[in-house]
Amino acid sequence: MVDSPGTALEWADVVVVGARCAGSATATALAAAGRDVVVLDAATLPSDTLSTHLLWPAGLAELGRLGALAAVEALGAPRLTEAFAHGGGYGVGAAFPAVDGIDYSMCVRRTGFDDALARTAVAAGAQVRQRRRVTAVLWDGHRCAGVRYVDAAGRIGEIRAKLVVGADGRRSTVARAVGADEPFLTVPSGRDCYFAYWRDAPDAARHVAAQWRAGADLGTAFPCDDGLVLSLVQPPVETGGGRGPGEAERRYTAALERIPPLTERLRGCERVGRVRSATGIASYFRRSTGPGWALPGDSGHFKDPVTAQGIRDALHYGRTLGEAVADVLDDPVALDAVLTEWERRRIVECREIFHWTNRLARGEAMRPLEIELYRAAVDDPDLARLTTGIFARTRRPAELYTPARALRLAAGALRHQRDDLPAVLADLARELRDAARDRHTTRTTLRGKSSRGAAPKPRSSLTTAGPGEHHA
């Protein structure tokens, strides 16, 4: 067995596929621990990618832990010090909870943000190589042993490594190659997502991250860098709708018209660029580790953008993956055990916010208990802070839906919405059913065991014989 003619062969401790959030975080942690890390990305950096890019305080804290916060703040996005949510006729404002002393959020466009992360990885000692498209995963028996790639000039290269990290997004090449691209749990969203940037008005409240609910629509306004504001709408999925030219513009404009407070927020603003879209969204968990491979970021786990958790989780679980494996890369048995535990920990830590996100992604009008929650939060600052804390990952959804609070919300809904008693009772029954279903899913599918039955079957036919030897 011989290498293909013209194939460049090299070795590294770890090869990371994808240089954005999860990939750069993983590489930074590994390089800081003295490991030889090569990061490959098919794109040219800096460049944009589809993302709503709101960072809660926990996400900014992750940047601080990686040493990237100063570079990101230098991009000029304003500090968002107030969260505002309006729905059911009630507007609720709250300060952000502090994480590592950071009590504000930021909305930073991905072009500059991802470049800052990649530069941080390089400063830590990682090699970041652009315009390298990974085409295959290499194997040594049943163990992942590296990748094959093609560079911008068409040259083929191979990197043999002790660990392959697939940080290459929802359509992950690595996940597909190792047979892990089919989720073991998936929940389709009831919402589509459309967003655009606007040149913000001179008198705009650029310290407020705002969200509005109107009917079944949801819309946001997040001030970001370069004097812009990101305005996102998530209307219900439109069955049978078109996908041709102008469809995103049509749906975005129609949703804005159905959310008058958001339209008012954008008064005096000028649209910049086209409307971008994400449709056919589904939240999921994939098997995320195996012999010699791991999937941090969206490649292994994804939540609907309605709660803006993706960047924080990509940074956090990329960093913790790198920190966890740095000392055991030379011992395959120990490495696989650490990978299994890392995956188990992510499942356990993310399953509750996964359920919470899926509820908000239903694409329905606000229900009686939701309306009562907003009404109660207007007069109860602790309740408003608790709700904001759930989004910021400093509090748990279970703290909101305690039996005592659920009873109070139900009683309040019955009292304040007595003209719609059947709807209140139906909503209460649904909440009980949904809570039971989520508990069942947590105890079974998301019980925190990463070895669920047989391991995925690799889909790459390439094999390697061992260190220093050749493969076909």
From TrEMBL:
UniProt name for this protein: Flavin-dependent dehydrogenase
One Pfam family from the record: FAD_binding_3
Region annotated Disordered, chain positions: 436-472
InterPro entries reported in the protein's UniProt record: FAD-bd, FAD/NAD-bd_sf, Geranylgeranyl_reductase
Domain FAD-binding as annotated: residue spans: 12-330
GO molecular function, one term: FAD binding
